[in-house]
Structures are given as structure tokens and as C-alpha cells.
């Protein structure tokens, strides 16, 4: 993997100072940068001068002037050393003298500390790389523009809240189904209560060690990821005390002004998605406010030469960068391509088109690009606007990009035809090049790597069964075909569960000769409480009402209960082929957001969150369809 000299990864390196005439396309930024540099140098020299003057010039601070006219306490000061009168200057005598000396000393210390601090800050600035300084300047500019806009803004016309049908209910009539639904709710209680006891405020829970846990996607701050991710599941299950508890924590503690580098994609789908849904369900303003606060913090990630956002952004400095492992400094398709739903809702709710414009810009750029075999590669360089390696996947790195094309169309009340066309074209190419049938008759989605099909399917790709079913209606006269394709993927993914000792699916599985739907490498045998297979069962259940999907979902629920439940919550397992598996000791936040929610919905009536009113984001946070044509708003959120 090559690393260009000015990649953000090399952010700690100081690029050569360019004071000469600009010689590359960012000359305007370079000039400003140089000016800033010179200013900083002058500032630090000035501070050093003041500092020196303060300590090495004669100590005039002792000659403090007082104009109080109190002759009994103020007498003309005589310089003891020179014996000369210093007219107009008075020294304080009497009982106050000591106090004033102390005050002076205190003042001097404070000035000294301030100077040292300013000097340190100037030095720190000079240590920063060109990218960091550029991003800081841009962030400052954005802040000023934003402040000006806020000042100028007239109060928004009230936003017509979409028709929020089916936010509770769904009680099944059948007694057996009712019991199963109750069991899922009990599992949610167990996961939540233990997080409440042992991990409260941390991002996730270690259910064996019984303490908080986090990963780099959330940065180094305790942002309560599990709380935010779980809120809507608690709400639809009727766990309202727990919901309020979570709301209180968010009101009191959730603060995004932290010096922490987070994944733009992950915080968008889990935090912004979770907060927006919590707002729509409960109507509590705090969730909307927090969602907007976070979104503002993510905006600097888009300050790249192409407008394709960085994978990570520091919430405080606004400095962005990409994952070190991504092909040639690229951004990831499934990351920058999974912002649309949340960002459209942000523009809708705030009346500020900035979010909408960011995601539409990404779409326009992608539309202009040439696609090898009609496929979207997983990697795109945000500096050059060129694809990285030609890898295409419907699993990790690609998955939710396709999902959001379809859902952009659904969320727009099926008016965003551009998104639908992009989805249809992409799916056609995927079917042609990536979807195959195994010798044993299982349909699978492989991965395209530099012109070669790898016959391996990830657990993540299993979500596509649900996506094909959801997109069937509205496809180019192929509704029956796509529903069938969704059902075939569901069957394959069920097989990947059924062929293990624990009846839980591995992270990825192969189709190679005699091997079918089975993981081969040890490193691919784990199950981390992922939702995708159950998600597909639920969509297929909604569209077909074939009882097999409830049956398969129940098998998975029992397996999770038996092999993943521990006294401190639920844990992932390291090897689904071993009947005595080791735990990974992580209760993922998506287990509460997605896995348990999809299971609960699978055993609920269709009137709970009906699919013609709600569209689920990729973290299973339902967002209402925006029927803008029927509102007083004209067209899309960008022109409100
Ligand atoms: C979730 O965070 C989301 O579903 C995402 O799109 C991909 N994977 C995880 C769960 O497996």
C-alpha cells in the first residue's frame, strides 16, 4: 500500500514551509496558510519580547499609581536606591502595604502563567501539519459562517411532522407468538439492566468482566453508545421507565464537544439515527437538539478536495483522516454512502440545506464516475476522486451504500427516482457478476476482487435478502424475481447457521468444492451478536407471512439465549463450530438496537412500524417517510 506524502495519516509530519509563490492547485489555501504561519511567528516573537521585558526591565510595577487622594495612607515614594523623588507615584504604606504586595505578586504570577500558556499554544500550533492547520482554519470559517447564518435566520415555519403511524402496539393474537415476543422483551431487559448496572455511560458492556467497554469507532470518550442505540427498541417494547432513564442520561451527560476522533459512519448510523428516531417516537426536543449538535461536529469531515468525507473526524478540532488499512488512503463506499437518510432528515427538521447538499454532492460525484462492469468499487480516494482497489462487496465495505439508495427512494415517498435508478442499475450489475448458485443449490453473493469472484459470503451480506425483498415492489417489472432472490439469500444464510454446533452463523462462510456455507478459517468462525440474518427473516416475514421465517428467527433467539447469555448480559462467541465456545466478552450496542428489535418485530403484528410509513436505517432505527409532496413544503428539504 503506497502512502502519498501529504496523506492525513502522516498528519504528525510537518510539511516543508512554503513561503514562495504557490505551485499547486491549493494555492489560495497555501497563501492563507503561509500568512497564518508568519502571523504565528510574529505573535510568538512578540510574546517572548513582552515576557523578557516584564522580567528584565526595571520593576515599574512597584510604582503603582493611585489617585485616591488619601494623604494619610499615600505618601510620595522615594526610590530607596537612588534617593530621587518619583513625582506623581505613590507607595502604599501602613497595614495595607503587605496586602498590596501580595496582590502584586499574585498579578505578576498570573501574567507570567498567561504568557507561558500563550507561548505553549503558539509552539503547539507550529508543530501541526499542513492538513491539521488547514482543517482548523476551515472549521473556524465554517463556525463564523454558521454563526452569521444563525443570527440572520428567521424563525422556521413549523415543520409538519410526518404521519407517525404504528409507534406502539403490534400485539399478536396467537398465544404462542405472544409468549415468544415476551421472551424477546425479557432478553432486552437483561441486556439493558446489566449495562445499566455495570456499563452505564460507557459505550458498550463487557458482560463477563462486568464493566464498560469501547472500541476506536467511538473515539476515546464515554458517549453512552448503548443508551442512544437502544432507546427506540425500549420505546417500542413499552419499556418506558428505561427509556426515560436513558433520556435523563442524555440530557445530563451527552456532550459532543470532546477531543475525540470518531467514525463518521458509525456515529451517524448509531447516534444521529438513534437520536432522530427517539425524537420522532417521543417528541422530546432534546433528542433533536443533540442530533443536530452532533451533525454539526461531523461537517468538517467533508472538507476534502472532493467533498467525499473522511472516515474519521476529531469532534473538537474537526481534523479528519482515513483508516490506515484502506486502499491508498481511500474512503469507504459503505461509510460515505450511508449518510443520506439521516442527513435528509436533519435538513428537514432544521430547515438548513447544508446536510442535504453534502449527501447530494456525494451522489452526483458517484454518478459521474465510470464503474468497472457497472460495479461500484469499495474504495474511493477523497483527494483525487479516483477509485482505489477494484473490490466490490455487498457485505462489509459496500453493503449499506446499496441499502441507502433503495431507502432514499422509499423515504422520499418513492419520488427520488434518481436513487431508485442507481439502486436498480447497481443491483443488476451485482446479480450479473457476484450472485451465483453453489453445487448444492444455495444462492450466494460472492466478492469481486480485481476481476475475480471470491466465493465467500459474509454474515454482513445476509442483510441483502431483506433488501431484495424490500426493493421488489417498484423494480423494473421484476418484483417476483427479487422477492424470490431475497428468499434464496435467507435460505442460504439460515444454512450457514444450521451447519454449526451452536446454530449461530459464522462471520463469513465459503462455497468451495464440497464446502458450502461453512467457515473455513478459524478467524472467521465467530458470532458477535450480529443482526443481518434475523433482519432478513423479518423483511421476508412481512412480505410473505411464510411461517418458516418466524421459526428460523426463534431458532436463532434460542441459540443466543443458550450460548450467548451470561449473568452480566449477552456476549459474542469465538467459534460457532465448538459446542463449548469461548466468549468474546462484548455486548455490542447493535445487539440492542437491531438484533433484539428485529426479533421483537418478527413476533409482532404488521401494524407496529408499518413499512409504508417507516424506513429503517442501517442500524434499525426507523425514520418516517417524508411525504413532502403533501405538505406545505415545496419539493425537497434543500429548498425549504
Ligand atoms: C451495524 O452497525 C449496522 O447494521 C451496519 O450497517 C453494519 N453492521 C453492524 C451490525 O452487524
Question: Please, could you describe this protein's structure?
Answer:
- Keywords: Calcium, Disulfide bond, Glycosidase, Hydrolase, Membrane, Metal-binding, Signal-anchor, Transmembrane, Transmembrane helix.
- Pathway: Protein modification; protein glycosylation.
- GO terms for molecular function: calcium ion binding; mannosyl-oligosaccharide 1,2-alpha-mannosidase activity.
- The protein is mainly α.
- The protein has one domain: Glycosyltransferase (Alpha/alpha barrel).
- Helix content is 47%, strand content 10%.
- It has 18 helices and 21 strands.
- The strands form 9 sheets. It has a 3-stranded antiparallel β-sheet with strand order 5-6-7. Strands 10-13-14 form a 3-stranded antiparallel β-sheet, with no helix packed on it. It has a 3-stranded antiparallel β-sheet with strand order 15-16-17.
- A hairpin with a 5-residue loop joins strand 20 and strand 21.
- Helix 1 packs antiparallel against helix 2, helix 12 packs antiparallel against helix 13 and helix 16 runs parallel beside helix 18.
- The chain starts with 26 loop residues before the first helix and ends in a 16-residue tail after the last strand.
- The structure holds 1-deoxymannojirimycin.
- 1-deoxymannojirimycin (DMJ) binds next to helix 18.
- The site of 1-deoxymannojirimycin has 8 residues, from helix 18.
